[in-house]
Automatic annotation (TrEMBL):
The lineage of its organism: Bacteria, Pseudomonadati, Pseudomonadota, Gammaproteobacteria, Aeromonadales. It comes from Aeromonas salmonicida subsp. pectinolytica 34mel. Residues 188-372 form the Tyr recombinase domain. One of its GO terms (biological process) is DNA recombination. Keywords: DNA recombination. This is Integrase family protein. One of its GO terms (molecular function) is DNA binding. SUPFAM superfamilies: DNA breaking-rejoining enzymes (SSF56349). It comes from the Bacteria. The keyword Ribosomal protein does not apply. Coiled coil: none annotated. It holds the Pfam family Phage_integrase.
Length: 508
């Protein structure tokens, strides 16, 4: 139930000494750039200026920061806007207009934001609600003073606008894991599992916790409860190299105190990393799995952020190190949300989602399902994703094009769709051995150097189109319209098409 509310932004916000120190330490890049698909757009602005002017698609967009009266808050506003832009949000003047008043809230804290978001004044303007809530989420992810990472778990308790517009309802979920990022994470974990013996102790620990967070979405409190004996190797076959692992996962949310656990399956690559982790650290079955006793929340979030940086292409790492772009801050909450979001999109029931997330009630699971549109096209639009940014991300995850005649290193050949595709590109992977499927896994890999012979790439695209059509037909006839293989093939098709577009456009 909501009540009328008098806004708290009459005058400058009251900042604590911790907040002032935090803002003063923030470093802004010298320039900010909005990614578009036209070379005629004006997409770069200097962050020192208080007026950021862009021309996108023939329309002028201005972000006017002089409307933020407090000097330090103006710097924080710029930092947050850069973070949104680097994260791929379609950030324009209208979005800034909905957002700017939040930087003048008198009570600049999680509770202050929650009070504002619960007021009719904001609930009756859904666009403003989603913009301010996205800012609140970012401040919590940054662990900004008076905004805790733990507050992210309470977002479900914040009232939402009573709107019949499914686009706005779904956008409120703010999925932070676009398909290219998911592919990058999965490939990095698989690669780490194949060379687990050669990983340093520190890398092994971080890859293991990173993989468990990505595939299970466990909360920090769940990590603190699991022991080495909760991991099991259910079946193994040395001849085929196939293994099955499981985890007895403690409940994440409980209505009463219980020692019951839910058994979930783990991918083989995670199981192999866990085995090596337990062996390296000489853990007995009763020993605590995670090696830290205090500050587990901050420890896990720091591990996730470190790994998100470590798996990026070298060019992206250099830009992040030089301060040209910001790496989005993702926490255990975001990883957990990604699991629930993915299950809901795959058509899982509330019971199945609650089981996988370790919930003893169906409240959160029902929320995921109620905010999931039935149409796949609605999904990408309602998420607020920027398709141009998605394309740019795809390009970043694939290496530059190369000429076959002058290439002297390893080449890529493989079978796909019943056809042999020979020398579609080069490979600069530092390891001699690659465990990924040749051709099928190359188009989204940043070690891949596609050759400029378009006929070869069109041949691969033709095979994928045929495989996609066949899979769709089988899925429809069997009633499995949410077959996850369709998403995998659709993503692969997009990666191949991006390479073709890139070569045709003359990109190097």
């Amino acid at each position: 139930m909501t009540t009328e509310h008098i806004p708290q932004f009459s005058g400058s916000p009251t900042l604590s000494s911790e907040q002032i120190i935090f803002i003063e330490k923030l470093k802004l890049p010298s320039n900010v750039t909005i990614q578009t698909d036209s070379r005629f757009d004006s997409v770069t602005a200097k962050t020192d200026d208080d007026l950021w002017r862009f021309v996108i698609g023939g329309e002028k967009t201005v972000l006017n920061f002089t409307t933020v009266s407090h000097t330090l808050m103006r710097k924080l506003a710029k930092f947050c806007c850069v973070s949104f832009i680097n994260g791929g949000s379609p950030f324009r003047g209208s979005r800034w207009h909905q957002l700017k008043e939040a930087f003048d809230f008198k009570d600049f804290s999680y509770d202050g934001f929650k009070t504002e978001l619960s007021s009719n004044r904001i609930l009756e303007v859904p666009d403003k609600y989603t913009a301010i809530k996205a800012l609140l989420r970012l401040l919590c992810q940054l662990n900004f003073p008076r905004f805790s990472i733990e507050n992210l778990d309470d977002f479900i308790l914040i009232p939402t606008p009573n709107t019949i517009n499914p686009f706005l309802k779904y956008q409120d979920l703010e999925n932070a894991f676009p398909s290219p990022l998911k592919g990058l994470i999965a490939r990095s974990i698989l690669s780490a599992s194949e060379k687990k013996e050669s990983l340093s102790d520190d890398k092994l620990i971080k890859f293991t916790l990173f993989g468990l967070s990505y595939y299970t979405g466990m909360r920090p409190i769940q990590f603190s409860k699991i022991s080495a004996g909760d991991f099991q190797k259910d079946t193994s076959n040395e001849a085929s190299g196939l293994y099955r692992y499981s985890l007895n996962m403690p409940y994440g949310k409980q209505t009463k105190i219980t020692n019951d656990k839910v058994k979930i399956a783990l991918p083989a690559e995670i199981g192999m990393l866990v085995d090596e982790y337990i062996k390296r650290n000489n853990l007995s079955l009763e020993d605590r799995f995670i090696l830290v006793d205090e500050y587990i929340v901050n420890y896990l979030n720091d591990v996730l952020q470190h790994m998100l940086f470590a798996i990026q292409p070298k060019a992206v790492q250099e830009n992040i190190t030089n301060g040209n772009i910001f790496l989005p801050r993702l926490t255990t909450y975001d990883f957990r949300h990604n699991v629930g979001h993915s299950l809901a999109l795959a058509g899982a029931s509330a019971d199945e989602i609650a089981y996988m997330l370790g919930h003893s009630s169906l409240v959160a699971a029902a929320f995921y399902i109620s905010a999931t549109p039935e149409l796949a096209m609605l999904k990408s639009k309602a998420l607020g994703d920027n398709p141009v940014w998605q394309n740019m991300l795809n390009l970043l995850l694939t290496g530059y094009a190369a000429e076959e005649a002058t290439w002297t290193k390893r080449t890529v050949s493989g079978t796909l769709g019943g056809q042999l595709h020979i020398k579609i590109g080069g490979c600069e992977r530092p390891d001699e051995k690659c465990t990924l499927a040749k051709v099928r896994s190359c188009y989204g890999c940043f070690y891949f150097r596609p050759f400029t012979n378009l006929n070869k790439h069109y041949s691969v695209l033709h095979c994928i189109n045929k495989e996609l059509a066949d899979t769709l037909e089988v899925s429809e006839k069997s009633g499995n319209i949410r077959n996850p293989a369709l998403d995998v093939l659709a993503n692969l098709k997009g990666e191949i098409q991006m390479i073709i577009n890139r070569i045709e456009g003359g990109f190097n």
